[in-house]
Amino acid sequence: MRRFPPERIICLTEETVETLYLLGEQDRIVGVSGYAVRPPQVRREKPRVSAFTSADLPKILALDPDLVLTFSDLQAVIVADLVRAGIAVHAFNHRDVAGILAMIRTVGALVGAGAKAEVLARGYEARLAQVAAQAKGELRPRVYFEEWDEPLISGIGWVSELVRVAGGEDVFPELAAKAAAKDRIVSPEAVIAAAPEVILASWCGKKVVPSRIAGRAGWNRIPAVAQGRIVEIKSPLILQPGPAALTDGLDAILQALDRPASLAEFPNVPVPVPPLTSWPLSEKHRAVLMKVPDEGWIEGSRIDGRCLDVLLRRGWIRRVHGDGRGRSRGDGYQRTPTARAALFPDEQPTA
């Protein structure tokens, strides 16, 4: 790597993109995978340079990166081409929750943001522990996670772990440690014999069709099918080994298992920011902030995307994980005391 910290980074998978945004280091990103969708603004802010197993090498070289971040043996050919072209590469290859947390800390270290990454990782660790504690002593439904349908492929390591954290029991735990998808192929008969009470499916970006699952020969005998408990979890939430899986992916599993959402907030990484007085409160931002409650929540979809990013970065709103009834609010937002002070400068702070 020609300079530290790297000023120009290309991310060939989604999880490192989201991590850099969460750390407030997104300005270093100069190119991303075409599959990157978190946070939503990445699709309009960053050029796309790759799929998962293929990449536009001339486009990558033209962007003159200091560092390219990749994932897994499936990108080994891309990595070799980049190294031969003289590009510095860091290849992640994790398959479990511990690996996700290590990835977050490593990305932070690589960009000189180790302290912020530690806050983020510890926040996720605390939330995972809280969710797991809520499930302790409860009956655990048997869960079959289907990562692909032709052939049937069961869930990878971090998915199996998150099912356990959420209060379920993976019916194929012995396969979860297998890194390669080909080593997690199961037969329809094996799934029938496992008798899962819940079926979670995420077909690597392909739309899940529950009726096709239910219509497989003999699957009407499976409790999950008989009770209509076949649930799709979108691939960007659960099949990317990064923050998405630990937050919205875990929430989706909790919902599918009829478990209460943890009331813990998502980790909030303190990012050094200019004094409040250096940010004039525009009429547009004032109007949006007046709609955001100090308590409770407003859905993120009701806030303009560009506005949402600015308000988050200035510390005027914060993301909340659960409402007072324990329902998941992964896309919920509250106004912060900083925002209230900006809106009502003459108001006396309450004790």
Helix and strand topology:
Blueprint: E1 9-11, H1 14-22, E2 29-33, H2 42-45, E3 48-50, H3 57-62, E4 67-71, H4 76-84, E5 89-92, H5 97-110, H6 114-135, E6 142-149, E7 152-154, H7 157-166, E8 169-170, H8 173-176, H9 188-194, E9 198-201, H10 210-214, H11 223-226, E10 230-232, H12 235-238, H13 243-256, H14 283-291, E11 298-299, H15 305-313, E12 317-322, E13 328-335, H16 337-343
Parallel strand pairs: 1-2, 1-4, 2-3, 4-5, 6-8, 6-9, 9-10
Antiparallel strand pairs: 6-7, 11-13, 12-13
Helix pairs in contact: 5-6, 7-13
How is this structure best described in words?
The structure is a single chain. The radius of gyration is 22 Å and the shape is globular. With 351 residues, the protein is an alpha/beta fold. The relative contact order is 0.10. Helix 5 packs antiparallel against helix 6 (114-135) and helix 7 (157-166) crosses helix 13 (243-256). The protein has 16 helices and 13 strands. The chain has 3 domains: 9-125, 3-Layer(aba) Sandwich (Rossmann fold), CATH 3.40.50; 142-256, Nitrogenase molybdenum iron protein domain (Rossmann fold), CATH 3.40.50; 276-343. The protein starts with 8 loop residues before the first strand and ends in an 8-residue tail after the last helix.
Query: What's the shape?
Result: globular
CATH fold topology of the largest domain:
Rossmann fold
What would CATH call the architecture of the largest domain? 3-Layer(aba) Sandwich
Structural class: alpha/beta
CATH H-level homologous superfamily name of the largest domain: Nitrogenase molybdenum iron protein domain
